[in-house]
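Two records follow; treat each independently.
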Amino acid sequence: MVANYQLVTRMARCVGGMLVMALILLGLTSAGVADGKTPRVYAESSDNTGLIAAPLVYRDAILIVVTDDGVAAIEFRDKDAKLVNKSAKYRFRYLKDARSEEVAGAGIVHDSGNDIEECTIKAGPIRVGWSGRSADRGCIYYQPEEMQICIAEASRFEDSAAHPVPGESQLIQKLDLKRFLKKQK
């Protein structure tokens, strides 16, 4: 019995030592950071100088992001069973300015922790940090000095029809992104 205890203790010290060495090597090689400065994931600033975190429930909401580069409407889609748990599909509409044509697109964000680009929502030149919480919600990260965040009803992402009375249909126009553009100085 004592011999078994000593053997287990020696093995634990050996494994613990290997774990410590692996962590040291990971830190020395910057395996978690591509250039030594770029973080792998988004995180809220604890001192009010960096990113703000905001929870986002995907159902019935679209995210409106306003920056100097334009405005984007972002709608998260139904969870794809083939995707890993902390991932989300989204589609977007982007408008650079009042004279530009609207651009539409789609993307997927992954909360893998391997690459900051995988957890960045991209809508035209607009970039918003993201992390997954569950199949129907996530968290966004942004600098309020650089962008404004608004929420709107998801039914306004595109033209749709409502049925206020059975047998009647009422057109609901998609949200006009020009209303959100920053005023030119």
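The next record belongs to a different protein.
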Amino acid sequence: MLNCDAFQIGRQKNNSTIGQIKRTVYNILQIESKVRAGGKSVKELNVDGTIA
């Protein structure tokens, strides 16, 4: 029982860290896309970064 709880806590910590990293990477990509597009919003960009 104790081992199971510790494992669950470990997984939760790991998931939140991965989530934070994913959000950070996403934010960086959004900023880079905006800069490359000269300030256009990400929604106006195609997946490869070209302006739609």
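Discussion point: The helical segments are 2-36. How would you locate this feature using only the token line?
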